[in-house]
Structure formats: C-alpha cells, structure tokens
C-alpha cells in the first residue's frame, strides 16, 4: 500500500464510481481525466474492468503486490481485469484513466506492465473523457475503437523503478519521489527513517536490485524526462533535481539513458 508522510493532504477516492468500473454494460472504454492540487491515491481495490492509468505530469507509484514501481509521466500502467492494486501520485495529480470492458481485453496483456502511451492514445482518451454520459454516437464508437487499437499496439517501457518492500525504505522512497531534488545524504536518510546506514545500503540493494545511490539517480532521471520533453532548459532541470552542476546531471542522465538530455529532448520532440 502506498505510504504518506502524514503531513501532505491526500485525496483518497476512486476516479470513477466503483459500480462503473465493474459494469458489464456500457461502452467498451470509459475514460476520465482529472486535475487537482493535492496528491491522489487509491488504496487496495480491484474491479471487473481492465484499467490504464497515467500521469500527465510527475510520477505515479503502482503496487499490485508482485509488481511495485514508480512510473514517469507520458507512460501508462496496464492493470488487467480483476487485479488488486493501489496507486498514488507524487505531488498534485494531473492525469487520466481508462476502464476497458473485459470482453474486449483479449488482445491486451494478461499481466500488469508499464507501456509507452502514444500521443494518439492520450489524445483519444482525453476526447472520450470530455464527452458526457449517454448513448454513444457512431463517432464516439469509432474513437473507442482507435483507443483499443492503440492499446493492442503498446510497446513495453523499461523506464520504471522498483520500489522496496520494507516500510522504512518505502518511507524514504516516498519522500524522495515527492522531492527528488532533496540533498540529504544516504546516512542522513538512514537516521531519518530509523535505520543504520549499513542496513539502508544492504536492504535497499536486496529489495530493489540497485544501490541506494543508483536508485536515486534513476529516480531523478525519470523525473527529468517529462520536463525535458516539454522543452525545459537542461540547466534548470539539473538545478531542480539537486545537481550541483549541469555536467554532473548530463553524466548521470547518460549513464541511465545512454544519451544526453539535449539529444533525448530533440528525439522526443521530433516524435
């Protein structure tokens, strides 16, 4: 279950009525977009429809028990029908979700995963969400078919970050996800969470497969991706993420992504 620090107000409510998420009748695709000033989370639940959920900005934590990950904006999480899960945003929530009739989920993955959300998919879901309820027009039906075609063609995305299981480590991961530019050292984080530095180092590597330093570097790079895609200057992104120099940020970005921030931004904008 996603954790919070007990200080930041969090909206804990479903994006649509549970009865709609379980409805066998109705459109093949139910879509909703939402924007709010507070973080959002949904605690453990399941519904009959499959679900896509994505942030337009920031990060999402997604937990299905076996699958725990941080997901950057412009990527989407697929949750098959009936799968119990919990989702939380880091920072104010701005994003969307689509609920897919299980009768049309046959061509979609049987397991949860993170996928690249194409611009066409995002635009179609935003359009569907803007239409009021009621009998669908032929145009709406055609657009829902476009969404399903895009879902079937989604490509898996390796840009996720595993979350630790230990509650103390999850508290650190939560705080860093909320403020990736925080400059606390690992020993300071250990004291903050009630751990010894050695325990933090050992347990983090055991539970995520990465050192704490490597995990934090990947987190910062994930946070940088949507900012760069929107055209933010590399220098500003570096400073916002807590780097003391632009060159240090470029080196970290290249280590994770295999390219420079400027080259990544150019590639995304061409797409």
From TrEMBL:
Q: Has the keyword rRNA processing been applied to this entry?
A: no
Q: Spell out the SUPFAM superfamilies in the cross-references.
A: Homeodomain-like, RmlC-like cupins
HTH araC/xylS-type domain segment(s): 170-267
Q: Which GO terms describe its molecular function?
A: DNA-binding transcription factor activity; sequence-specific DNA binding
Q: Which Pfam families match?
A: HTH_18
The source's superkingdom equals: Bacteria
| Keyword set, alphabetical order | DNA-binding, Repressor, Transcription, Transcription regulation
Checking PROSITE patterns in the record gives: HTH_ARAC_FAMILY_1 (PS00041), HTH_ARAC_FAMILY_2 (PS01124)
PANTHER family, per the entry? HTH-TYPE TRANSCRIPTIONAL REGULATOR NIMR, TRANSCRIPTIONAL REGULATOR-RELATED
Q: What is this protein called?
A: HTH-type transcriptional regulator NimR
- Give the organism, scientific name: Tepidimonas taiwanensis
Q: Which gene encodes it?
A: nimR
């Amino acid at each position: 279950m996603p954790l919070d620090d007990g200080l930041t107000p969090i909206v804990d409510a479903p994006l649509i009525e549970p009865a709609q998420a379980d409805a066998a009748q109705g459109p093949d695709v139910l879509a909703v977009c939402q924007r709010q000033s507070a973080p959002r989370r949904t605690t453990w639940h399941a519904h009959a429809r499959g679900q896509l959920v994505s942030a337009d900005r920031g990060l999402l934590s997604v937990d299905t028990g076996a699958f725990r990950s941080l997901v950057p904006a412009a990527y989407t999480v697929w949750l098959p029908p009936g799968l119990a899960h919990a989702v939380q945003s880091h920072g104010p929530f701005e994003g969307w979700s689509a609920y897919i009739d299980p009768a049309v989920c046959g061509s979609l993955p049987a397991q949860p995963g993170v996928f690249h959300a194409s611009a066409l998919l995002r635009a179609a879901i935003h359009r569907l969400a803007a239409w009021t309820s009621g009998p669908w027009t032929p145009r709406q039906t055609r657009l829902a078919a476009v969404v399903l075609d895009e879902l079937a063609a989604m490509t898996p995305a390796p840009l996720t970050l595993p979350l630790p299981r230990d509650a103390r480590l999850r508290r650190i991961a939560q705080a860093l996800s909320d403020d990736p530019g925080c400059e606390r050292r690992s020993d300071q984080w250990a004291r903050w969470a009630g751990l010894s530095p050695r325990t933090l180092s050992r347990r983090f590597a055991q539970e995520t497969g990465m050192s704490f330093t490597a995990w934090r570097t990947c987190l910062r790079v994930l946070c940088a991706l949507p900012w760069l895609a929107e055209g933010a200057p590399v220098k500003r992104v570096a400073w916002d993420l807590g780097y003391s120099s632009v060159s240090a940020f470029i080196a970290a970005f290249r280590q994770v992504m295999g390219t420079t921030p400027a080259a990544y931004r150019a590639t995304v904008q061409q797409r």
